[in-house]
Amino acid sequence: MVGQLKARKAAGVILKMVQAGRIAGRAVLVAGPPSTGKTAIAMGLSQTLGSEVPFTAISGSEIFSLDISKTESLTQAFRKSIGIRIKEETEIIEGEVVEIQIDRSITGGHKQGKLTIKTTDMETIYELGNKMIEGLTKEKVLAGDVVSIDKASGKISKLGRSFTRARDYDAMGPETKFVQCPEGELQKRKEVVHTVSLHEIDVINSRQQGFLALFSGDTGEIQAEVRDQINTKVAEWKEEGKAEIVPGVLFIDEVHMLDIECFSFINRALEDEFAPIVMMATNRGLSKIRGTNYKAPHGLPMDLLDRSIIIHTAPYSADEINTILSIRATEEEAELAPDALALLTKIGQETSLRYASNLIAVSQQIAIKRRSSTIELTDVKRAYMLFLDSDRSVQYVEEFSSQYLDDNGVAFTEKMETD
Ligand SMILES: Nc1ncnc2c1ncn2[C@@H]1O[C@H](COP(=O)(O)OP(=O)(O)OP(=O)(O)O)[C@@H](O)[C@H]1O
Ligand SMILES: [Mg+2]
């Protein structure tokens, strides 16, 4: 990313706090003029957070278009943004394979076998069932491999080859990883950790849908009782040290599209025991709060605004626009002549960054049409003439309003006649 240093620094601070798990239940508002990189900053944040911290992005208007209620879809979005890190202890067998012996019965169906496995201190023989034999064959386990077997699931993983076998196997190729033969007991307890979201736990436990709903995304409404039970359970796990809460980030883009009911829901949800960090973005100044007749800064009720820390994005300078556009051109594999880039930058300054970057693709098509691989000044000029930016479009509509239809679908000229 280019420029927007203050906003990015602020986002960086928030990132640190999210990673430390410290500002759950806070709201952050990113406010600024259109195409100043608000959405881009949020997306950047989500990528830096990594896969361990949940990040959910929704758009304000989206929750009105679903067939579940507004509050249900907000609840789901909130719960998708809270991770539960569950710790589990499993028993594993870890050692170096001494011998695998498989007896095939004459009929071919049932297989039996024995696995001899050792550590530096002990050696044991295990009876093998059908499933284990399949697993060993699939992983191509040989004598001399160091393996780890999960006792509960029977899952086998190869850790590498034992150093003691290094000499006999010159032919194994350079990829072979050599490891020490494990010490001590063959059976060990190992802690495994996985992170799921509260929403995923909800879906799996709501009997109507079952976990398949996770794949179709069609989860419907989830009963409040189910959620209450899960909250209690998770709180218990937390007490017992089995689980850890990982507050993630819920990003609501175009937040001014929400109405007063949604805002009061968010206000309340932020006080919940399990609350993520809510990051909102808007390009509105003083505007009406949907569902009311009041005007408020950013179209947000004062109580929510009061809770939020606000980050401002400012319009880009010419240099920054220049850099962003040339990065964009490289990404689109378009080659820009210097004067073409200069004109695009000027257009970007006078209209918007988004319009200027849209012109890149269009100008490229025009350049291709005249069989040039480079976008020249004339291509950009032509693209500018063919496609209007919002200002010119507004001007055009005002000038020729008589030819357009009005809200009732009546053309201005027709109206003159009927009046
Ligand atoms: N600092 C930047 N570096 C690189 N590209 C940027 C930067 N800022 C914005 N862009 C690009 O500019 C375009 C507009 O940015 P973005 O969509 O984030 O604006 P926005 O502030 O969310 O606007 P709106 O209020 O209209 O939603 C995007 O294509 C984005 O990739
Ligand atoms: Mg945006």
Automatic annotation (TrEMBL):
Primary location class: nucleus
Keywords: Activator, ATP-binding, Chromatin regulator, DNA damage, DNA repair, Helicase, Hydrolase, Nucleotide-binding, Nucleus, rRNA processing, Transcription, Transcription regulation
The keyword Nucleus appears for this protein: yes
GO aspect biological process, one term: rRNA processing
InterPro entries: AAA+_ATPase (IPR003593), P-loop_NTPase (IPR027417), RuvB-like (IPR027238), RuvB-like_C (IPR041048), RuvBL1/2_DNA/RNA_bd_dom (IPR042487), TIP49_P-loop (IPR010339)
UniProt keyword DNA repair present: yes
Enzyme class: hydrolase
EC number: 3.6.4.12
GO MF term set: 3'-5' DNA helicase activity; 5'-3' DNA helicase activity; ATP binding; ATP hydrolysis activity
Gene3D superfamilies: 1.10.8.60, P-loop containing nucleotide triphosphate hydrolases (3.40.50.300), RuvB-like helicase, domain II (2.40.50.360)
GO CC annotations, alphabetized: Ino80 complex; R2TP complex; Swr1 complex
Occurrences of domain AAA+ ATPase (ranges): 24-315
Pfam families: TIP49, TIP49_C
Swiss-Prot/TrEMBL catalytic activity: ATP + H2O = ADP + phosphate + H(+)
Function noted in UniProt: DNA helicase participates in several chromatin remodeling complexes, including the SWR1 and the INO80 complexes.
Family the entry assigns: Belongs to the RuvB family.
Record-given protein name: RuvB-like helicase
Organism (species): Meyerozyma guilliermondii (strain ATCC 6260 / CBS 566 / DSM 6381 / JCM 1539 / NBRC 10279 / NRRL Y-324) (Yeast)
